[in-house]
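Predict structure. Input: MtaC protein, 260 residues.
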Amino acid sequence: MVSSKGVDYAKILTRYDIKAQNEASPEKIAEKMLPKDPALKKVAETVVWMKFKDVGPATTDALKTQKPLDVINKGLVVGMEIVSKLYADHIYYLPEIMMAAKTMEIGIAIAEKKIEGGRETKGLVVMHVAEGDPHDIGKNIAAVMLRSSGYSVIDMGKDVPVDEVVAEVIKAKPLMVTGTALMTTTMTAFPRAAEKLKAKKVDIPFMAAGGAVNRDFAESFDMGIFSQKAPQTPPIADKIKAGYGWKKIRAEWDEITGGA
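Output follows.
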């Protein structure tokens, strides 16, 4: 008979996932990523900790010594990047994402007033949730992350008919269109939309995302590319802006996103 005498049950019963999460506190993660400049650090912290009342004064103060674009890109956007990291690590959730985004937007509105001609956008993305699908949380998070990364977004909302998506893409001429589906009965809208766009001579990446979608499905139709989670959307957009087409995005997907 095997004896259990001397067995250290602490090692067996420890929830190492919880232990790791506790060790990776928001404060520790933020400290590694925050700007070194005191003024920019203060700006970034208002976003990370969702301080609505403090972001205005902090941004105004930083503008006394920093260029407006630096306040945005090296302060406010860095703060949102930290929030994205906390979200990816399951420390922050949707409420924190949305509150931090609102904080960032307040600061950006103040800084943009100091930029002659306004802030230049990296590019335009059209976003929607598939026809018949009412679930838009994932799309909302991805939209926040795209905006915080410098992109303009046309958010068409949820349950958007295929023909409306096609019409908006033709009209707006974005660098990418994204669709989200959480129901297997609605994800077929994406290849139908892509086919109609192709017939109109539109050949841009069509990002398919959401709980119902996997990479095999997203790459089963022309133009289709995949995003497994919201934080992958901005780096994919950056590659498209740099000249990548949908075929090259597919070929280098693991490298671009860090894999599944």
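The chain has two domains: 23-112, 124-257.
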